[in-house]
Specification:
heterodimer; A: mainly alpha; 4 helices; elongated; B: FAD/NAD(P)-binding domain; eight-stranded mixed beta sheet; six-stranded mixed beta sheet; 19 strands; about 25% strand; globular
Amino acid sequence: MDKSKDVIVCRCSDVTLAQVQDLIKQGYTSVEEIKRITRAGMGPCQSKTCGHVIEREIAKITGIKVDQQEPHKQRGPIKGIKLGTMAVAEKGEKHED
Amino acid sequence: MKTRDAVIIGGGVIGCAIAYELARRGMTNITVVEKSYLSSGATGRCGAGVRQQWGLESNILLSKKSCEAFERMNEELDYDGDIEFHQGGYLLLAYGKDQWNQFLKNVELQHKHGVMTEIKTPQEALEIVPFLNIEGLTGATFHQKDGHANPFKVTDAYYKAAKRLGVEFLTYTEALDIVVKNGEIEKVVTTKGDIYTERVVNAAGGWSKEIAKMVGIDIPVYSERHQILVTEPVKKILDPMVMSFHHSIYCQQTPHGSFIMGLGDPNELKGYNIESTWQFMQEMAEIITELLPPLKELRVVRQWSGLYNITPDAAPILGNTPHLEKFYQAVGFSGHGFMIAPMTAQLIAEQMLGLEPSLPISTYDLGRYERGELVKEPNVV
């Protein structure tokens, strides 16, 4: 039985394996494109989980191996950081957190 | 030999919308050439705002008609997704007498054209955004029908609609040269072969100057990085886009719950650099936590940047080119291309097909710089 509708690929944005497979078949064949349509990889983990899964699905469907795919862009900050924390840093004040 | 009625260079919202508007009017034998994926440039990096609060008649009309197109877009393009157009309004903040007087003049003109912007005292602004810090605020203007839409989805909707009508999209394909013979375009040379055509549309956003150079035309545009960031999603607390020319910032809460905000840096260098900096994030954080204090609890999850393609009068260059009639420009949007894309695309398509223009496109022609007829818009970040 096809369980791809029940498998969550991106936990931050609730994207299923079925959605990802469907988009790859429609011609959205990079992590960057799938991210922009589904929000996969835009949440707190910033694609650290789903990015690899999506790359493997692209490889399975298109035949382009993961190491031959254009690596998707990793953007800062590495970890979520509060605006308030940065604001006091800008002013040079002592801050918590 | 591959022959097309037109080749559009650039797969952002402008290129995809022009493709759709041409195809809808019967010109379907056309190709969009995009060097990366669709909306990989400025479109997919923008702040997503859609406003009609402008200070010039031409800009008010262009944005009003575009806004009406966004309202109908899911249906008109028969989109299987949602462009997420949310009309929570734009709250424009004024600081100081001069700016306030300019705002009042703008509102008068907006009313003349049916953009029913409301004038607000600082106290009234608080009714719209209760946690706004109104210290130093002179007044604000608010227009409910402004808002924001999802740029990826809008581009995707145009792409799918154009594709259904028969338009060819070549992604990961770079335009390398445009060959002109006897004063007319002969072909576009791409990384995937030559395409013979007499019409070319320059919709290359940040790279528009480079495309024009291929035919020896120097268009008065330059590119400049603008940075932006997004926070974690939270429940809806901010309905309108908040914008301050004084602070040179804008901030909105997306339908998904995250906050998107950007800042214009007066010291930014011209060029193609789109790296992100810590300085931006810190400066943005300082300004926004002053202006909208509860945001200090929100975590930034990502920052990025994109290129503004800027003209001397911060208004786009649209339409055919002197001495090379069938080379069409849809460039130089100076940071507000997304919001006027629907109407821009219609005007370009109408001109290419020799149809009566829905709005006077000649206001935005390339020749205006030589004639000294600049479009002087007072309302830009």
